[in-house]
Structures are given as C-alpha cells and as structure tokens.
C-alpha cells in the first residue's frame, strides 16, 4: 500500500510539472553572471556612459547616454550626444518618468508614462531597461540557451562572453541572439550586441564607470 501511494504521488507531481512548464523553469546561470552580481552587491550608487546604436526598421539612432543610479531604484539619464541631445529623465520606480527636452525646452519638466514615446529609445527601451543590472539580468531571465565563452580582448581588457540564443524571439522584440562582454577582472559589462536574425539592431558600449559615486536622493529630482 505504501509503495502504491508513493507511485501515485510521483505521477501526480510529474503531471503538474508537465502542465506548468514555465512555473518550474530554472533561470539561466553562468559564472560571469554570478561574478557580476557579487560585484554589483558592493555598489550603492554609480555613474557611467552608454554609447548606443539602435535600428528599428529602416530607421537608426545613435546616442551617448550619461547614466546615474542609486539603490534601490533611482535612475537618471541625460542624452549627451545624438538624437534628442540635451534631453533627460529621472525614474524613481513605478510607471512614470520625470523628464525634459533639450534646447530651449530644457527648463520645462513633465511627468509622463514610462513607455511614452518621449521617454524611450527608437526600439522602445526605457530608462530602467538601460540599467546595467537589468541588462545582465536578461541573460539569466530570458528563456533560451546560454553559453559562456572566452571573449578575448575588448577595449584593452580581457573579457568573458555570454551568448544567449533566445527561445521565442516573437515575444522578445524580435531578438534572436544577444551577446554581452564583461571585463574578466572587474566583471562589469564592456559591450552588448543584439541581433534580429543576421541584423544587428542594438550595439552598446559601456564606459566611464564611477562606482560608489556618493549619490544622494537629491541627485534624482522627480
């Protein structure tokens, strides 16, 4: 009787697992992700630059963003160069951004939805999408096949390369493959490239890191 009850229990558990594949799916894992998470845990606030080339259909966008971040959820960007130069925004969690446009409109601040066309890039990426920790997290959280490789030397430093083949591009902005190179010594990202098929639709470089920058909430006026 004990054996029969155990068999029934195991069979029932297996059926539940089959019927809920997403509920039991394990996150992707790699040593480079774990090393980054350990490095990020030591930082309370930081600044950096993101050099971004994006493609959406027949349109392209090239920008340099000045990013600031303070834990747990304060972020600020300023477009240093490129389309929208002088525009910026502040996000403090939630679904709104406080922002301003460049030029003579820079003194006018508006609060808009996080996904408002004035607050996103050409491919629809938001301020929190551009946070370093959120970028790395996509490699752990996005269903697909993840590999870690030797990335060689990039920007004068040796790197670890994470290559993610996306399982369902249709539900992920059409991205089929994404790759990120992390400094093998500091574990902070150096470059990321995303593909839609054979086309590069996002190419980002991360520079000018200032870790534990001593930022306060006053640096994120909302």
Explain what the structure shows.
It is a single chain. With 222 residues, the protein is an alpha+beta fold. 18% of the residues lie in helices and 43% in strands. Strands 6-5-4-3-2-1-11-10-9-8-7 form an 11-stranded antiparallel sheet, with helices on one face. It is globular, with a radius of gyration of 21 Å.
Features:
alpha+beta, 222 residues, 11 strands, 3 helices, eleven-stranded antiparallel sheet, outer membrane lipoprotein receptor (LolB), chain A, single chain
Biggest β-sheet description:
11 strands, antiparallel
Give the proportion of residues in helices: 10-25%
Number of strands: 11
Question: Which regions have little confidence, pLDDT < 50, spanning 5+ residues?
Answer: 1-26
Give the averaged pLDDT, no decimals: 88
| CATH architectural type | Clam
**Would you tell me the structural class of the helices and strands?**
alpha+beta
What is the 3D form? globular
CATH superfamily: Lipoprotein localisation LolA/LolB/LppX
Walk across the major sheet and give the strand order. Answer: 6-5-4-3-2-1-11-10-9-8-7
């Amino acid at each position: 009787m004990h054996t029969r009850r155990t068999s029934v229990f195991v069979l029932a558990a297996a059926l539940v697992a089959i019927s809920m594949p997403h509920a039991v799916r394990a996150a992707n894992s790699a040593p480079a992700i774990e090393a980054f998470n350990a490095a990020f845990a030591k930082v309370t606030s930081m600044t950096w630059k993101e050099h971004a080339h994006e493609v959406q259909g027949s349109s392209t966008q090239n920008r340099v963003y000045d990013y600031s971040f303070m834990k747990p959820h304060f972020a600020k960007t300023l477009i240093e160069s490129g389309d929208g130069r002088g525009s910026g925004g502040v996000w403090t969690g939630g679904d709104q951004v406080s922002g301003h446009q460049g030029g003579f409109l820079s003194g006018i601040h508006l609060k808009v939805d996080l996904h408002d066309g004035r607050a996103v890039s050409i491919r629809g990426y938001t301020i929190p999408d551009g946070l370093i920790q959120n970028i790395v997290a996509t490699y752990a959280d996005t269903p697909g096949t993840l590999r870690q490789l030797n990335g060689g030397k990039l920007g004068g430093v040796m790197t670890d390369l994470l290559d993610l083949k996306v399982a369902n591009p249709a539900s992920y902005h059409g991205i089929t493959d994404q790759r990120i190179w992390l400094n093998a010594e500091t574990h902070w990202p150096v470059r990321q490239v995303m593909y839609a098929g054979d086309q590069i639709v996002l190419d980002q470089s991360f520079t000018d890191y200032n870790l534990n920058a001593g930022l306060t909430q006053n640096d994120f006026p909302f």
